[in-house]
């Protein structure tokens, strides 16, 4: 507890140090100090008072300062926001006489409002959003280390509760098994089994029956015998597989155990039709990546679909259902863009390559103002169209599937909101994938929301996030820190725990971080496109030559800016959308400022477009201008190539490998990166990778073992880290290879789509199962969430729609 730490400071000689530090803070120009600034003031304080390093590290005060996230200087007192450990926040007011008073969340939010002159107590309180009471009924994880392992926890907790009453448990299990159908065809058990007692007897009879048969006898050969006993298809594809599944059931009836339960539920054929919702951006298979709003999410979903369909098919085969013409179908639901700019985004249906029955289904936004709705719409402006999109999409999904789907997965804030609306209407399990929560990307995006609302509309986005993340049956995150951050920095979901939207609402509890709904399931890379540079047999010589020319020598002002004087230098490569947060301009700046770095390598960027007049995205336009300005300011001519091209996936794979052939490196300089698929791609290709320490890369890379961390806000340090690497390569001929090989191994061991989809499906089944058997009553929460949607979100969305109508 931080109160104990504060007490320890106050009751010791360090009290004087705290007093001095506090007065230094009061005289600092800033009223609102964040972590880095607090540490800087503290270091200054220590220096001016000749205080040793050891004190900074070992004193109570040093420890206290290291966990202060925020200090607000409020007249004579200081408000300290302390994060003593992951996912815990406490606030205290330190008065001038050195007394310390705890602050409630509401007090803290009021103070923050006051700081930005948005506190009007005479006009009454602001609306408070509090999700906490709705999580009372559900179990909460106790140890923050277990956050993100929700399903294991849920299983253990709920099973132990359920198994206490064997009779009730057997009834629940029996009812659950009777539920399953495919296109009206009964699966698992039929009406010949009428009670749970009968089920228990018949399982034993069926077990004797299948155990006597050859292990690999196909299910269709004994299907009718099992049917006579009351068992339909779905138990297995061979006599042995049926025996295994029935044995699990037998054990669950007589002596249940949570591990057997998890294995058993994962085998139940209950998912055949899946919808992945991803409305914004350009969702297509060609010519879309690198456009505004169109990056990793598209790559993630397309790879996920292929793997998901395969996994569903494998599971249905193992369940013995393929002989009954049961097959999986996956639909990616996105928006149809009539003016598709040479892409297929105007096509209603598009088959997904490499799949049997997976499709992109595009549903148009209703035509409000054709100059807007017929074109690409920025993800920040998309909010007014989503409710009607969900209504229209429901009709189309029902038609395509001939049924309701079994699982709806939302992607990003807009897709998650649509997933919520669809899941609510169709009573289906809802899974959320955030990809990136905008709130933590833009500093103070909530506190100053009103100033940037015209551009970003965060009041809609953050409300949509709160709605969807609370409504979801379960949430998948790519990293642990996406949920609750690191000891030093708060997580993306954690930033929704409490915050103020001055004049609009206060969130006193926006999400339960200890809820078992959170599960870390990282993505993978497409291993047939991205593989190590040394796998020469899998590479095409023609592609290599064409792309080498594009990267290093081609002179075509439509595609490339800049030429290289010395192509023998290793390339420092980066590829990203030209979004401000991606900070490619920051990388160019770091390169521009360092002559030493320029001596050692060339800079090659694959990024968006070359001309501002080709873009309608305000961030892209300003980044293009900035990049030209940096190249001119530092006179980088002859050292930099900027490719404004849209690469086919296979080409981007080969490009990483060409960089590898030349012992180059990959740098990812984002100011914040939620996960970072380019990092996986570069690493699996064998590129030593230098990636931002802000966000997911911190979890992907292990510093100096299989890559390097950089702090993109310190350009000189970034340059120095890369220079040191190249120098080390000079001294040790194997160094490049060592890091390269470790990077490849890191990806193969931890980030594969097979691991991802096996886990995803198992989660979907288990959450579906628990929602059914625990009769968990979430209706109170869902009603509250609906009121946020109708009373808060919808009027604001309509106001934005009116603005669009006028444009
Ligand atoms: N990408 C691309 N061309 C570009 C920029 C990006 O093909 O000009 C691809 C890149 O290979 C990666 C994805 O887009 O697969 C970007 O994903 P990441 O997670 O790194 O970032 P995001 O764009 O989603 O923020
Ligand atoms: C969005 C992002 O910003 C990236 O960090 C992720 O890698 C991508 O989505 C895929 O989840």
UniProtKB/TrEMBL annotation:
Gene3D superfamilies cross-referenced by the UniProt entry: 1.20.120.1230, 3.10.450.330, Glycogen Phosphorylase B (3.40.50.2000)
One family name in Pfam for this protein: Glycos_transf_1
Keyword Protein transport: no
GO MF annotation list: sucrose synthase activity
UniProt-listed Enzyme Commission number(s): 2.4.1.13
Keywords assigned: Glycosyltransferase, Transferase
Domain Sucrose synthase first GT-B: 260-552
Domain of life according to the entry: Bacteria
All residue ranges annotated as the Sucrose synthase N-terminal domain in the record: 12-112
Residues in Sucrose synthase EPBD domain copies: 149-237
Catalyzed reaction equations: an NDP-alpha-D-glucose + D-fructose = a ribonucleoside 5'-diphosphate + sucrose + H(+)
Range of residues in the leader sequence: none
Ranges that cross the membrane: none
Keyword Nucleotide-binding assigned: no
Matching SUPFAM superfamilies: UDP-Glycosyltransferase/glycogen phosphorylase
Annotated Glycosyl transferase family domain residues: 565-729
Family the UniProt entry places it in: Belongs to the glycosyltransferase 1 family.
Protein's name in the database: Sucrose synthase
Protein species of origin: Candidatus Synechococcus calcipolaris G9
Organism phylogeny: Bacteria, Bacillati, Cyanobacteriota, Cyanophyceae, Synechococcales
């Amino acid at each position: 507890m931080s109160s104990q730490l504060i007490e320890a400071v106050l009751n010791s000689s360090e009290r004087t140090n705290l007093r001095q530090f506090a007065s230094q803070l009061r005289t600092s120009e800033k009223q609102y100090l964040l972590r880095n600034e607090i540490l800087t003031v503290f270091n200054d304080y220590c220096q001016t008072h000749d205080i040793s390093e050891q004190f900074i590290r070992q004193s109570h005060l040093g420890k206290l300062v290291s966990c202060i996230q925020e200090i607000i200087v409020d007249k004579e007192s200081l408000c300290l926001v302390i994060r003593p450990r992951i996912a815990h926040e406490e606030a205290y007011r330190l008065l001038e006489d050195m007394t310390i008073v705890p602050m409630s969340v509401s007090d803290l939010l009021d103070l923050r409002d006051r700081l930005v002159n948005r506190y009007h107590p005479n006009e009454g309180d602001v609306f408070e959003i509090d999700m906490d009471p709705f999580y009372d009924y559900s179990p909460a994880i106790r140890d923050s280390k277990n956050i993100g392992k929700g399903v294991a926890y849920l299983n253990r907790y709920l099973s132990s509760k359920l198994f206490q009453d064997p009779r009730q448990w057997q009834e629940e299990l029996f009812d659950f098994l009777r539920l399953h159908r495919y296109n009206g065809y009964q699966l698992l058990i039929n009406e010949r089994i009428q009670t749970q007692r009968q089920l228990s007897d018949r399982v034993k009879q069926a077990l004797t029956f299948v155990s006597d048969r050859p292990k690999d006898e196909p299910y269709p050969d004994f299907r009718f015998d099992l049917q006579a006993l009351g068992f339909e298809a779905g138990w297995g594809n061979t006599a042995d597989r049926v025996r295994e599944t029935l044995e699990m059931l037998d054990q669950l009836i007589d002596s249940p155990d949570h591990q057997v339960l998890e294995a058993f539920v994962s085998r139940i054929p209950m998912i055949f039709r899946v919808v992945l919702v991803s409305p914004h951006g350009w969702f297509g298979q060609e010519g879309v990546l690198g456009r505004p709003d169109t990056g990793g999410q598209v790559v993630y979903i397309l790879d996920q679909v292929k793997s998901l369909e395969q996994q569903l098919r494998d599971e249905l085969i193992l369940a013995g259902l393929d002989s009954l013409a049961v097959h999986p179908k996956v639909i990616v639901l996105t928006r149809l863009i009539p003016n598709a700019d040479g892409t297929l985004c105007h096509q209603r249906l598009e088959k997904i390559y490499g799949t049997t029955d997976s499709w992109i289904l595009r549903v148009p936004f209703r035509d409000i103002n054709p100059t807007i709705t017929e074109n690409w719409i920025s993800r920040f402006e998309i909010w007014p169209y989503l409710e009607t999109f969900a209504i229209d999409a429901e009709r189309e999904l029902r038609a395509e599937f001939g049924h309701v789907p079994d699982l709806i997965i939302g992607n990003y804030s807009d897709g998650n909101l649509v997933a919520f609306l669809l899941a609510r209407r169709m009573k289906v399990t809802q899974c959320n994938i955030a990809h990136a929560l905008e709130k933590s990307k833009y500093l103070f995006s909530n506190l100053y929301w009103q100033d940037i609302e015209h551009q970003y509309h965060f009041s809609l986005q953050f409300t949509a996030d709160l709605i969807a993340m609370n409504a979801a049956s379960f949430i998948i995150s790519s990293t642990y820190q996406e949920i609750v951050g690191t000891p030093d920095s708060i997580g993306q979901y954690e930033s929704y725990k409490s915050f103020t939207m001055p004049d609009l609402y206060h969130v006193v509890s926006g999400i339960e971080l200890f809820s078992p709904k959170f599960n870390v399931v990282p993505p993978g890379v497409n291993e047939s496109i991205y593989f190590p540079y040394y796998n020469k047999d899998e590479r095409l010589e023609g592609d290599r030559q064409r792309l080498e020319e594009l990267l290093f020598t081609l002179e075509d002002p439509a595609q490339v800016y800049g030429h290289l004087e010395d192509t023998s230098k290793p390339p420092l490569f980066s590829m990203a959308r030209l979004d401000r947060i991606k900070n490619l301009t920051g990388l160019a700046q770091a390169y521009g400022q360092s002559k030493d770095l320029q001596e050692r390598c060339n800079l090659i960027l694959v990024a968006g477009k070359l001309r501002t007049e080709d873009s309608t995205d305000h961030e892209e336009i300003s980044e293009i201008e900035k990049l030209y300005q940096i190249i001119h300011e530092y006179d980088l001519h002859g050292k930099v190539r900027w490719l404004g091209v849209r690469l086919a996936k296979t080409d981007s794979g080969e490009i990483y490998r060409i960089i590898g052939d030349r012992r180059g490196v990959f740098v990812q300089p984002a100011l914040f990166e939620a996960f970072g698929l380019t990092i996986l791609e570069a690493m699996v290709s064998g590129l030593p990778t230098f990636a931002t320490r802000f966000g997911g890369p911190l979890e992907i890379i292990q510093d100096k073992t299989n890559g390097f961390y950089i702090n993109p806000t310190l350009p000189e340090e970034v340059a120095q880290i890369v220079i040191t690497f190249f120098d080390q390569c000079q001294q040790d001929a194997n160094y490049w290879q060592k890091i390269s090989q470790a990077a490849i191994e890191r990806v193969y061991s931890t980030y594969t789509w097979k691991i991802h989809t096996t886990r995803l499906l198992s989660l979907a089944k288990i959450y579906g199962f628990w929602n059914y058997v625990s009769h968990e009553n979430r209706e109170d929460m869902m009603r509250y969430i609906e009121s946020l949607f109708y009373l808060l979100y919808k009027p604001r969305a309509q106001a934005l729609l009116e603005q669009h109508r006028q444009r």
